[in-house]
Amino acid sequence: MDISNRIEMFVDKFLIDSMGNCSMKLFKPIRKEKVMEFNMPWESETSCYLTILNDNGIIRLYYRGITEHADGVHNAVTCYAYSTDGINFNRPELGIHAFNGSKANNIILAHAPECHNFSPFIDTKPGVPGDERYKAVGGHERTGINKGKLYGLKSGDGIHWERISDTPILTDGMFDSQNVVFYDGNIGKYRCYARYFENSHLDNPEPYQGVRAIKSFVSSDFINWEPAVSNSYDVPYIEEFYTNATVQCPGAEHFYFSFPKRYISDRN
User: Fold this and answer.
1) Is 91:78 a contact under the CB 8 Å cutoff?
2) Residue 103: C-alpha distances to residues 87, 106, 110, 162 (Å)
3) Which of 32, 93, 98, 149 has the most crowded Cβ, counting Cβ within 10 A?
4) Distance (Å, rounded) from C-alpha 121 to C-alpha 129?
5) How far is residue 101's CA from residue 11's CA, in Å, rounded to a whole number?
6) DSSP symbol at 81
7) Rounded distance, CA 147 to CA 221, Å?
């Protein structure tokens, strides 16, 4: 096998013929600086689903904020911050959406279904129009038993967003979590890893009943998607995954890594 100058991560023994007096060890990540506290009035303890994009030296951070109005109804907003070192993040006063009568905040989307789980990416597809350089998915509107709507969005600057179409781009899933999307140059198509409920073993499933699982879709145009393929795992037991955090390895894009968060219901 000729790997030329391709970077290989050696996460398994696929390329190793033999090993002597050595072993493979997975090192644990080390907790470092605190880079963000969600302490603004339009943020809360349920600010989550963060996406970080390295955009030509600007580290863009997108996350969910939560606003609570006088009637006690919680509404999600999407917020934006940026950094040049990945440690110190700034909340720009964008002047796009008002909160408590003031637009001096970093809210880029407000009171839309997409704000529940907004997840953007930089579109690297060759020839993509400038006003679609940034794309995103978001939305959690239930349409039936464990089914929802996932909308597509586009932006030319990563700040001002609009829907690609009035209709959702995906409906075969629940999507009530962070769904990850990116352009995969290996296959020349977009990939979307989304949350759904595996309940084929249940006769009459109720909403949110079943196993929280991940499946993926591919698309040539970001609008029309092929049927999903469910993730499978080389373990004999069932794991529930709340999020998947799937990425291509930078510099070794033939590797696909996921950093899922497990769901264990009895831990509360």
Assistant:
1) no
2) 26, 8, 12, 19
3) 149
4) 15
5) 52
6) E
7) 23
CA 50, CA 52: separation in Å to the nearest integer? 7
Half-sphere exposure of 186 (CA within 13 A, CB side): 12
Q: How confident is the model at residue 205 (pLDDT cuts 50, 70, 90)?
A: confident
What is the length of the chain?
268
Tens-digit pLDDT profile for residues 119-142: 999 999 999 999 999 999 999 888
Tokens read off for 33: 């600086």
CA distance 84 to 60: 9
* Mean pLDDT, residues 141-165: 93
Sign of CA dihedral 239, 185, 171, 141: positive
Per-residue pLDDT of 29-49, as tens digits, reads: 999 999 999 999 999 888 999
Give the mean pLDDT of 108-121.
93
